[in-house]
Amino acid sequence: MSADKVHPTWSLADIPYAAIEKEKITGNMDWFYLLAGASFVEALSDLYTRNLVDYYQGNADATEWLRREWEREEVQHGHALRQYVLTVWPDFDWERAYQGFISAYLPYCRTDLLGPTHALEMASRCVVETGTASFYTMIQAASPEPVLRLLAARIRADEVHHYKYFYRFFLLYQAREKNSRWRIGRELWKRVAEVDQEDSYLALKNAFEVKNPGQRFSPEDFTAFRRRMGHWIDRHYPFDMAMKMLLKPIALPVMLQKAALPLLTRGARRAILH
Ligand SMILES: [Fe+2]
Ligand SMILES: [Fe+2]
After folding, report:
1. What is the DSSP letter of 117?
2. 197-249: per-residue pLDDT in tens?
3. What CDD domains does this protein's entry cite (predicted)?
């Protein structure tokens, strides 16, 4: 299957880590937690790939792409972020925190949580890629440091590219399954409600506890962190873009989409900022 062929590939060698202006970011621990947490979640993508490849057994187009491109790019996001974190905060024991994250998170990551149908799982993957594309758009806009802006732009382009692939696979399965808008909408909503629960909490917790030996990361710390993030989200989160990507699999008639968009955007803003 051919997707947008112009999508540029890149590697860690393209990121000018030596040019990072450390003094612009090193003192802000929120950036540390955010980037360390993101590096864990991305680095764990090889596990999701196995789950997805199992689930889409028999669809060589999908499984080839997942293994060859998607997994490689997601894991590279993890490694690129790890290198950024370790350049700015070199005393951080990344490996130890990552191992802690993996053992805490593994019980939540199971193949039988995928589905319930092939089309609906592809729609769910679109939600996840919408989330990451929006997240890195926000990072790019909010970053006080130029190399991080550049890295976020690279990752963001990959996430948008992934979305396009998952969306195309969704359309192929949907042509067979013919799920109603209502059903797709319900699945998407379920997935939105799940996003950034367990994994971001556990990622932050493990980054925090390794960075601050002897201290415990509590749910209250998480709430306080989320509250501080609220200011960035309010200023930099691309709500319009996220909503358009999110609604695409439902294929609402244009008029309805125009009417629903501002309402949903307000709802999403409230949900994220609550
Ligand atoms: Fe990613
Ligand atoms: Fe992605």
Report:
1. S
2. 678 889 999 999 999 999 999 989 988 998 888 888 888 989 889 888 988 99
3. Ferritin_like
Q: Locate tokens 């732009």: which residue?
A: 153
User: Ligand 1 centroid to 159 CA: how many Å?
Assistant: 6
Q: How many domains does the chain have?
A: 1
**Residue 132 within any structural domain of the chain:** yes
**Per-residue buried b or exposed e for 140-151, using 16+ beta carbons within 10 Å of the residue's own CB:** bebbebebbeeb
Confidence at residue 240, expressed as pLDDT on a 0 to 100 scale = 86
Q: How far away, in angstroms, is 110 Cα from ligand 2 center? A: 19
Residue 5 belongs to a domain: no
Given this model, what pLDDT does residue 272 score? Answer: 59
Lowest mean pLDDT among 3-17, 114-128, 159-173, 237-251: 3-17
- Residue 137 domain-assigned? yes
Output the CA torsion sign for 71, 72, 73, 79: positive
Residue 79 Cα to ligand 2 middle (Å): 14
- CA dist 219 and 185 (Å) reads 30
**Which residues have C-beta under 5 Å from ligand 1, the single-atom ion?**
42, 74, 77
Q: Does residue 215 belong to any structural domain of this protein?
A: yes
- Is it the case that residue 273 has pLDDT exceeding 60? no
Cα 155 to ligand 1 centroid, rounded to whole Å: 6
Q: Compute the distance from residue 38 Cα to the ligand 1 centre, in Å.
A: 9
Distance 74 CA to ligand 1 centre (A): 4
- What is the distance between the alpha carbons of residues 55 and 51, in angstroms, rounded to a whole number? 6
- The one-letter code for the residue type at 166 is F
CATH number for the domain including 52? Answer: 1.10.620
160 is written with which tokens?
């948008």
When computed from its CA atoms, the radius of gyration of the chain, rounded to whole angstroms, is 19
- The residue segments making up the domain with residue 194 are 12-273
